Amino acid sequence: MLSLTCKTAIKAVIYLASKFESGEKAGIKEIAEFIDASEHTVGKMLQTLVKDEVINSAKGPTGGFFITIKQKNQPIINIIDAIDGKEVFDQCGLGLSKCSATHPCPIHNDYKTIRDKFKAMCQQKKVTDLCETVNDGLAYLIG
To answer: Which residues contact 94 (CB under 8 A, 6 or more apart)?
Structure first.
């Protein structure tokens, strides 16, 4: 359902949120290494997130990427909207362009239920919710 770039973006934002308390900023290389992703992908994705005000960046010798308290409390659907767009929650599970209730694919009804529940979770869960489980060692960002 989510693109690889979007999954990478969610991990990057969680990583930045984990640095919130210390006030540290993180560079592209540091983020890419921590979440085990390509620097090129991370760099482009972070630019998009800054443009959509999901995260912030500062230039200069003490610069880098960071997150504010308001951004830490945003729902994760904001990250998905910035990277994959809102339409990701309307797509067919088999990738058909004309899938609908009146013209369903073979998995339409089951997939729609799962997709709608996933969307609701993304609207309810905040970045801070995901960050806390990582900080507490109950969840991980790398495999």
So the answer is: 105, 106, 107
